[in-house]
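General statements about sequence and structure are easier to judge against a single worked case. In the encoding step, the backbone of a single protein was reduced to a row of integers, each denoting a local shape. The record that follows shows the chain in one-letter code together with its fold in token form.
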Amino acid sequence: MTPMKRHPTTCKLMYFCWSYLFFWFVLRLVLSGLFLLAPDEANYWQWGRHLDWSYHDQAPMIGWMIHLTTQLMGHTERAVRLPSVVSISLASVYLVLLARHWFGKQVAVATAVLSQSILLFNVGGLMATADGLQAAAWAAVIYHGARAYEDNTWGSWLATGMWFGFGMLSKYTMVLAAPCLFVFGLLSRRHRKSLAALKPYAGLALGLVMFAPVIYWNANHDWNSIRHVAYIGGANQKFSLHFRYLGDFLASQAALLSPLVFLAICWSWLDTAGYGAADKNWKEKYLLWTSLPVVAGFAMLSLHTRVYGNWPGAGYISAVLLAATKFSSGGTKAGRRYWRWTLATSYTFTIVVLIHTVWPFLPLPPSMDRTATELTGWDQLGKMVAEQVKAMPRPEKTFIFGRRYQIASELAFYVPGQPFTVSINRWNRPNVYDYWFDDGQLLGLDAIGVTRNKDDQKLLQQVFRKVEPAQAVVLSDRRCGLLGKRRERPVRTMYIYRCFGFKGGLRWIPPDQHDIRASSPLSEVVPRS
């Protein structure tokens, strides 16, 4: 029998699809080395230098991966960001594979084009955060979970569980993937029988075993990660429901996705929910159940406490595929026009932000420009701090500290030689530095410290024998002006302190015994000075 030949148009579609994803991978890889690390990125890089089973703030995978890439490529911005660059591209590949398998090559191309246009995904695929790693894991779970419900093989269920474990090691919100998959199967008579077998639970068990390092670490540290997550989730606040943060939450979603993409996704959810039982158009229902509950859950949480815009990001992975199936082909003339406008506005917004991140050009005041306040001046500051250390009476017995962990991490990366630095958390909140340094290592040493406040001298005198008045340092960025000219613009002022004779007092002091973080063995509840 003569083998069936592939249609040339079909081959061209998929060739374009994979080439397009590769182009955006290369673009993000190039851009990743062209601007300074943000404070949280520098903090995750510090995790890679202090390897542990887990960390106070978040699951450990981002620190492990950065340790690997910096060992291979050196301690550079591109090496720090490489795990995220690779991860978001892997997430895109999984999305396209599922789109092609279920809906055909035209939808696969539409999915590739839409996914690369979204600012949220580009930020997660460019900046060194846990979001990119979680995106790869979520997309892989959605793909392998779909195949598992179709063929019900051991391989598919175990692959689903493995990626679930990887995701749990990346970001704790990955836990939501399990109930999303389970509820879909429970509601679908077509797939319910799969849940009566051992295979899906073996996959879940594999994922939980992979998560064991985090359980081990927390069991040995008074479950401090759980306390931290509970605190930022509003557990320390008196329970109340209000609309104070809902508007901010919705606005952040529209901004990170672009308004037209956000509306297209919301309409896709509503249209799919109207199908009724999960057995009718079950593929769209699967995409609905693996996206809407995540975003809706965080929307409900915003009725109690502030929710950061990136928290529900994983929920949009399968939502993008769902929207592509609704708008990319067929439908009404108005729907196709909306699809074109959606792509145009999404790409415009994303490209403008990416260009501004690397080559600032938008006429925004520093107070409204996060790229200016978070991504500029750290290399300048690092050189100044190094000079201050050399000018100290005992430079060999002088350590470097930040009043906050973000500053300490930036100094660790950008002070020449990348020395170990300390965060004095006494007046702020507990963080990873509490596990790396204690007072006994630093007693009697001198220090150069950096803060954002010119009035920190009195606070620092609580932990040092002598503190000299602050030296103000104005940090600036170089902006693109008219006709390509570059000009300096002041962005923010930092303050450098010369401190002598450390007396102790690195770690956080809880404000009261009712703080959910206060029972940590790292801290002691005492009145603030």
About this structure: Residues 154-212 form one domain.
